[in-house]
Amino acid sequence: MLFPAIKSCFLPHSDTDERIGAALIKEVIEEELKEIPSEDVPPLTPLTVQVKTEQERKMVTQLGIMIRIIGDKVRDDKEFQDAIDGVAQGSGSKWDRFKEVADKVFEHGITWERIAVLFYVAGKLAVRMVEAHLPQSVREILMWTVDFFKNNLLGWIREHGGWINSFSELAAVSMHSVSSMNSHTGGLFIIFIAGLVLGSFITWRLTR
């Protein structure tokens, strides 16, 4: 009963889901940029709100790991990769091209998995911008993704019980992807499960 244990550590603050979502987008983008030389990457703090509790931080970390696992499926999708390249390299408004990619992700409706895919795509877009010698656009990608999240996804997330209710679906999707993982991603999944178990145990101890 891991998920109910974690759920008990969150108070029903109306802005918690917004705060976690913005922090999660930043987390995913920063993780994707870790392979880029630091001097080429603009600082992303304090462009988004910060999490307020250790429980929120753990949640962002665990969700971030699952998003990276789920994103492996998008990595092999040529249509998505071409769309990502188009944002970085095409002419015209980058915002319009970003919106086209986001709309494509949700063309069949909103799910937890598709929200994860959008955040992963934002991370890959940030990498493409740096590779295209447009590092200033990394901050734009972050803010565009946060704005899209707030305007188009936050209401759905709240209606579906908040981020805590994403764990079961995202974990199931992640488990389904394990068989095709490389050793590095598999290691991340093990870390995620270990963190989930540890977080649940700590929460259980604190609430007794």
Automatic annotation (TrEMBL):
Q: Name one Pfam family in it.
A: Bcl-2
What residues form the membrane-spanning segments? 186-206
| Domain of life, source organism | Eukaryota
Cite the GO molecular-function annotations of the record. Answer: BH domain binding; channel activity
- Which keywords describe this protein according to UniProt? Membrane, Transmembrane, Transmembrane helix
- The reply to whether Magnesium figures as a keyword in the UniProt entry is no
Record-linked InterPro entries: Bcl-2_BH1-3 (IPR046371), Bcl-2_fam (IPR026298), Bcl2-like (IPR002475)
Q: Name one GO biological process term.
A: regulation of apoptotic process
Gene Ontology cellular-component terms listed: mitochondrial outer membrane
Task: Give all residue intervals belonging to the Bcl-2 Bcl-2 homology region 1-3 domain.
Answer: 67-163
Give the matching SMART domains: BCL (SM00337)
Question: Mind telling me which PROSITE patterns this protein's record contains?
Answer: BCL2_FAMILY (PS50062)
Which family is this sequence assigned to?
A: Belongs to the Bcl-2 family.
User: What protein name applies here?
Assistant: Apoptosis regulator BAX-like isoform X1
Q: Which organism is it from?
A: Solea senegalensis
